Amino acid sequence: MKEDIALEEKPLKHRTTSYQKLVTKLKTNPSESSNPKDWSKPDTYERIINHSIKGGLRSFILAYGVRATVSFCLYLIRIVRGKAQWSLILKASFQNVDPLRFGAMFGSFSFLWKSINNSMRLYRGKDDRLNGLVSGAVAGLSILFEKKERRIDIAQQLLVRALQAIYNAGKARDIFYFRNGDALLFGLTCGQVLYAYTMRPETLPPDFYSFMIKAARCPQGSLQLNAKTVRGLPITSKEAMEVVKKLRPTQHSIDFVSHMSTNTDPVACEIIHPWIDSCHTTALDRFVTVFKSFLPVYGTLHFVPMLLLRAKHFQRDPVTMLSKTSIATLKSGAFMATFVTLYQYYICLHRQLLKTGWFGNWNSKYIYYAAGFLCSYPAIFLEDKKRRSELALYVLPKAIQSFYQIAYSHQWIIKVKHFEVLMTSFAMGIIMSFYQEEANVLSSFVRKIMYQFFEKN
Fold first, then answer.
1. Is 430 within 8 Å of 165 (Cβ atoms)?
2. What is the average pLDDT across 25-35?
3. Which DSSP symbol is given to 86?
4. Whose CA is closest to 121, among 420, 437, 386, 372?
5. Which of 62, 90, 323, 411 is the most buried (most CB within 10 A)?
6. What confidence tens digit (pLDDT) does each residue in 204-227 have?
7. Three-state DSSP class for residue 407
């Protein structure tokens, strides 16, 4: 009897719903226990205006100086190569309108962000995410100072960084986590990019497409012929011969093309790599060639930052630093070589399977998306973990741009005027809300840029 009374008097444990758990996690700020806010907080509107003007001028001068100096160095290289004149170097760099646009964008962003953020703090009596969200979104309008084509590139990069911050914030709260999510993102984006490389090159930035042509070592003419056959358009022996003759073809390749009838069959390996008959030898040759050509590039990307940004570490332990950087360079070269080789090998494998007759002449355009994913996903694991996300975020804007243009050409979506401005405002609202309250979810690169140009407040 007493036990029954005790059970009745014992309060029932409150059950927390999944929704309440999610709300609790969202309210939790993983950085609240870290360093408190130590930046200046002007306490009158007059001081806020003065603080904002000074910050805007500082950001303008820094951004203008950086952009003008970069232009100066690039023009200097052109002079050394004999492609420019000394008399025009100042006009092409410090007197150019591009550094002024760049500086005005940074300066106006700094002024708007500081003035709105501090005014909201003073008016609301709170220093929270909402202030950063609103001030960052409004300040994002400063991108209008840049040229149309540059606005698109900047907006894409900012959106990617904003999405990265959201993912990191969710991961810190255990809301979501994808094992090898960086590799998966890289694979999916490369699938889109390599589909565009094969089927819709006009949807890729011209300089990026040119880089892909040089890196992949696949003849552009062969790609164009392949795109025609995928769309059901016939190619002639004459068309194929014009492509093959420029590539030091073997006798077997010449004989194959000369006896080829007009058809819509998938472009054969004799046209894709006419200088080597064997697909296996082509794969080996492609790996060695790409590895050797990219090793100096990756060597520069790894060793120069080590010498400039980690000079003290290098002085303390040069052997360890040199060995780590050398290994990282070799891994990066192996990644790119594996990436290119696997894509080439998958296409050759498809052609060999067609020769068996099991699949007829099946040459779907989606094969090239699948090949892009299957070559990039395993290859990225050769890179260091910290570089995988950076590579994925580098490719993501290209994939988004390509998909957007393809979708628009099919009338799946409508074109929104000044969409890049809206994208920038959206992205900067998110970035600035995290920058003020939870800066650790931003990448170290973004944090450094933000602090150098805009300081903490």
1. yes
2. 49
3. G
4. 437
5. 62
6. 988 889 889 888 888 888 899 999
7. helix
